[in-house]
Amino acid sequence: MENTENNTDVKELKGFALLVGGVLAGIFGLALPLLLHGTINVWFWAAGAVLVVTGLFRPAALRPVHALWMKIGHILGWVNTRIILSVFYFCILMPVGVFLKVSGWDPMNRKFDPDADTYRVASRIPEVNHFERPF
After folding, report:
1. More confident residue, 123 or 4
2. Number of continuous H segments (helices) and E segments (strands) in the chain
């Protein structure tokens, strides 16, 4: 069955309701207030209960909520992907590349050698019994 905004199956809607409702009630309504020594927030319990009860008895009524949740998730995923990839590039890949360039180290041995007959690197021929003890 194809899962689109208009054709979300009942099992997926029930799973969405139980997961999001449980997280709202359990984590935001109970665990975080107890860990942070705050007061238990009834609003999170109420929202979680509404989602769970609706998911168990009328999951089709959650289609608009599920569609909105998925749209928000896609937007956040798009933003987070760009942020994470940008941080990875500028904090890890670029400094390593700059270091290799400055130090002159070429791990792939790509330097041009006009005196070389060939750039082929001969492969090592394995022993006949190299698969008998792989570790």
Report:
1. 123
2. 5, 0
